[in-house]
Design goal:
Chains A, B, C, D: GO terms for molecular function: N-acetylneuraminate lyase activity. Chains A, B, C, D: Keywords: Lyase, Schiff base. Chains A, B, C, D: Belongs to the DapA family. Chains A, B, C, D: It comes from Algoriphagus aquimarinus. The structure is a homotetramer of 313-residue chains. Chain A has 313 residues and is α/β, with parallel strands linked by helices. Chain A has one domain: Aldolase class I (TIM Barrel), CATH 3.20.20. The first copy, chain A, is 48% helix and 10% strand. The first copy, chain A, is built from 13 helices and eight strands. A six-stranded parallel β-sheet of chain A has the order 2-3-4-5-6-7, covered by helices on one side. In chain A, helix 2 packs across helix 3 and helix 12 packs across helix 13. Chain A is globular and about 50 Å long. The N terminus of chain A is likely disordered. At the C-D interface, helix 8, helix 9 and helix 11 of C face helix 8, helix 9 and helix 11 of D.
Amino acid sequence: MTLLTTSKEPLRGIVPPMITPLHADGSLDSASVEKLIEHLIAGGVHGIFILGTTGEFSGLSYQTRRDLITQTCSQVGDRVPVLVGVTDVSIEESIALAEFSANAGAYAVVVAPPFYNNIDQKELTHFYLQLADAISLPMFLYNMPSHTKLVIEVDTVIELSAHERIIGLKDSSAHAVYFQSLCHAFRNQPNFVLMVGPEEMMAETVLMGGFGGVCGGANLFPELYVALYVAAENKDFETMKVCQGAVMEISRNIYQVGQYKSSYMKGLKTSMSFLGLCEAQFASPLYPFSDSEVEELRSRFEVIAADLTQLSL
Amino acid sequence: MTLLTTSKEPLRGIVPPMITPLHADGSLDSASVEKLIEHLIAGGVHGIFILGTTGEFSGLSYQTRRDLITQTCSQVGDRVPVLVGVTDVSIEESIALAEFSANAGAYAVVVAPPFYNNIDQKELTHFYLQLADAISLPMFLYNMPSHTKLVIEVDTVIELSAHERIIGLKDSSAHAVYFQSLCHAFRNQPNFVLMVGPEEMMAETVLMGGFGGVCGGANLFPELYVALYVAAENKDFETMKVCQGAVMEISRNIYQVGQYKSSYMKGLKTSMSFLGLCEAQFASPLYPFSDSEVEELRSRFEVIAADLTQLSL
Amino acid sequence: MTLLTTSKEPLRGIVPPMITPLHADGSLDSASVEKLIEHLIAGGVHGIFILGTTGEFSGLSYQTRRDLITQTCSQVGDRVPVLVGVTDVSIEESIALAEFSANAGAYAVVVAPPFYNNIDQKELTHFYLQLADAISLPMFLYNMPSHTKLVIEVDTVIELSAHERIIGLKDSSAHAVYFQSLCHAFRNQPNFVLMVGPEEMMAETVLMGGFGGVCGGANLFPELYVALYVAAENKDFETMKVCQGAVMEISRNIYQVGQYKSSYMKGLKTSMSFLGLCEAQFASPLYPFSDSEVEELRSRFEVIAADLTQLSL
Amino acid sequence: MTLLTTSKEPLRGIVPPMITPLHADGSLDSASVEKLIEHLIAGGVHGIFILGTTGEFSGLSYQTRRDLITQTCSQVGDRVPVLVGVTDVSIEESIALAEFSANAGAYAVVVAPPFYNNIDQKELTHFYLQLADAISLPMFLYNMPSHTKLVIEVDTVIELSAHERIIGLKDSSAHAVYFQSLCHAFRNQPNFVLMVGPEEMMAETVLMGGFGGVCGGANLFPELYVALYVAAENKDFETMKVCQGAVMEISRNIYQVGQYKSSYMKGLKTSMSFLGLCEAQFASPLYPFSDSEVEELRSRFEVIAADLTQLSL
């Protein structure tokens, strides 16, 4: 990984927030991890991000997290960069996971703000700098206000970007003004990586100067999201329109079964089980769909899968 | 206006949410209204929206609102469509203003959800349908969750769009996933107008199929926003980049003096006073900047105005 | 009313936020207004508050508001103080309603913060002082963050209380720390009236030094709330327990039919229709319960009404 | 501890959420832990709750948490019940800490909802039942919406209370209607313990049937909070008023230095350092007050400490 981490080339493209395959008893499904990684790399992704929100990091034991880090880094090797979410409420546990990731060969860590206490921007800055000083890998900030209750404000990002190990930010706020404000603030620092989480807005941010997307749906159909990213990079509006339409169909149909706050997570992972990529098992407090919900999802999924076949990406 | 309202051509482009020029005593500054309208039309705007949030509708008496409607419709004539905000907590007052607007010659009304009580989507739908049935002008929905405490959900918009008088939506949520979801939902109804409020995201939404923007900064520099819109329409990324940079400079400098929740409103209107377009007077509860804030704003403004001159839009 | 308004005795007790009886077409049901006022006064209430949130002020036209003010003040006469909600987003309309209320013989006005724009405490202070300067009646502040999106902070209340016409505050936040903080801040200003909205917490605040409650349920069963207030004043824990139990049964059963954000309003007004006190008609955007919801409510109501008869208040 | 856990007598009184004494390097300050425990027991507290929000649980490593559990249970012995916060986002880590606590001799565990993902009541119920099934100690629910983003709704509490190991709830919402609704719902289950967090509302809830308070200020002045609790239990309004006044002075002066979201935590722990009970050191992301803030706090603290001496509790 030495070449990657010392490279001047910033990360760009599709970096799926990999779901964590689990058995019904909550233990790691290593066989599915292996299958899923090959599925993603075969799909052309530009990196793999484990232990993010979509990876259900918060519901996993530390042992499971370490097992996943080890397996992923080992299996991926030098093929694409591996990013590891080490978000935690305890800075000591974050540091420990970050150093474990460094030893495993990860490319970088990704860190959302500490998410229990309500804190101010100054405290947040203090936290991130203390963490960056204590670890050896590059770090991405992770803006996720719906989960952490605070925004990493633009001025805070600017201040933090002066730290040599803070190399980018993933924004999952879906707030277009915030993201454009970051793009503008960093217009003269072209190596500071700015990616978005929500796949529905990935293409437009790439058109406006963004670096790509951490798209959950790329777990399912990596080629589609890679094709959308490439089309946006190339300003190929014809292809973009087709791919964006498919992405929106997934968003509307796969992520909205039931009226759960977790419909996205349940719809995504259950659809992946239809492809044999994992079991439809979740870390607590999530639990599987009911049978009728599974059937509703399956019929929606089949329409989308058939349509995607037509696209011949 | 008959031609306009029966036209099949949906509204597109830059429709500034016109600020309301006021005297220090709170009364309408009609001379400035006249000057401002000519400034906007000379700047190439595609419509004028009065009595929106930027127009401080909520702080104005009903008499002032009616005076502004009459003057604006009369002065604008057939040159561009006039949209009138008739948002109110009382449906009867909304209807009365809408009919007054119709008689004055307005093109359409714009209505945010009733914003005092906390209500459900079904109640919201009931409200909008009752209102649409009672008025004679076309209506735009106005999604403004930061002010009204609720989102007009995508399914609600779909249901409401079946009403012949509900012809579009202005989204000021800045939520890119929401807006893309609307664009996708209406991909086969190309006459349903989808515009965004926040100017920072206008260009990207036009690239993705949006109809334009209700951009506050167009009160100040209409040519800039029109140029940005046209560049986005034409996929002229070179020009877009330059204009977007200028728009972001305005966003970062003009709208962020002081730590007020109202910094946008105060920065915009006070900057307009520098151009002689209005006085820096506000409807209560807003009040003018302090002298030092005005000077801080002025020095920022002068840099931006000088830069814009270079652009020769 | 001269005696009342110049009296040194602060308001104490139960001041129901009177519902506004309406016909199906939205017009004022004056016959029910008359009946309801007599019902309340016969029930022993210590004041009547019209045009509050429970009075659906925001959904009424200005003409309806003025009609209600006139009728209520005239019919109540000197029997109890009449408080009038003149909350509005436009200070000019608030002032106009306040002066209309003064002429009609009201005791005081009640004003929640302007509720459309997001504002700061300094702007809020500016608004309240400007309003207090412009009117002739005493004024109660009205803390209602769920509807207005901001809290009138304790320091703001302290600052505002220096104005001679600002004589108290009604707190509908249900936030016990906030209310105790106010009680402590005003421990040496025993004439500054501090009342709570939520009836479920009225008794405990009276035990701790509060002045009483603006209890919605007192529209239905005024004697119950008066008895609870008197028991709390007298530290009669035996009676308090019985009455508090009844109040909580109302809260749990009458206010929670359906899963509406408006279940309180619909349950209260519909129950009042069972007593013949009004029709179950609402200002838009609310609309009546379905038939099955009415029957569900009716069966709950009958249990409660029967239990209350047993209490022989 | 066998007697305690099998006892039918529910917990009542003052159970301080013990702060966690730390050294500047973040390690546990065991000498201060010892001193603090004796300070609390000498002050008459009815239990000790470690690793709550005030105990900065979220900022501590698991090793530090285990060290604190071991030391506290061992030192306290049978003198008062020890409650241990085992809130976590991972159910496996919660279970591990709960079993560790059981082995150390704790009385019960306290668990707030998993606080990263946004979840529904059904998922929350699923989580709590799964946890309760997996552990051997009794469990208190911990309602803390400002930190966990969701309320444990009354109906959820009722459903969960059917589990034999779920024996009570600590409510830190400060929402008086919520707490009264719980008191009413459990009026016929007198062993289900209902306590509040915010000390400003403790007395009134005890008057209304609550079981006591988990009061942060009792770290500093345990006698004061015990005296207030006893006075409320005895309906001794004279003493209650004096003690409540002192508690409110602490709330207003000690917890509100600076404009930090963490002013409570910083003010409390720094004041404790004035008494020699711990160092003014915090778990990241919190950091110490500046010198001038310390001096501001010290002058406020000295007034309060002097006043308390007068009370001779």
